[in-house]
Design goal:
By secondary structure, the chain is of the alpha+beta class. Helices cover 32% and strands 12% of the residues.
Length: 190
Amino acid sequence: MTRDFNIRDSFWNPNFLYHSSHRNTLFDIANSFQLEISKPTEFFPTRYSNNVQDSNSVLDLIFLCPSSLEHDNHHICPDCRLTSNHAPITVNILILEEHIQMTKQSFIKNSNEENHFIKELINSFKGFNMSSIQSIEAFEDIIQSLAISIERTWHKYSKNVNITKHSKAWWDESYHRDLNAYRQSRCLED
């Protein structure tokens, strides 16, 4: 959260000797978003007065997440203000590389593939001998075998589909039939 808050206060400007009653309200608002005021790496005024009798001040503030790497690591750039009376504030935000999954394994609800998947899992589960579980290790082995069986069966019957903005979780085979019927007849009833 950043802007020209137009509040003079000794907390963020050591050259100003007074406390503003608005500071507490501003901090309460920032706190409601789990943000705290960030201190610059080097102190500079953020507002430069055009009147030589007025002092330069700090009115532009930045509030960041206190646990972020950027907190207390922003810069005030007085040399970049050009004709403005406010100095820009910069902060480098690290953007981590993120893997975005573009495909997923799936099958259509109520399809033959789903039915085969369920039947094969049930038969697989029936084949496990649970009476020989005498230890935690034996129990963990059975659980591991179940997990392998589920994964193997899933990959056997599911297919790789692309995830797009048009992907619809509710779309099933009956919609395909209805859509194809409409495309052939072009009749509004279909």
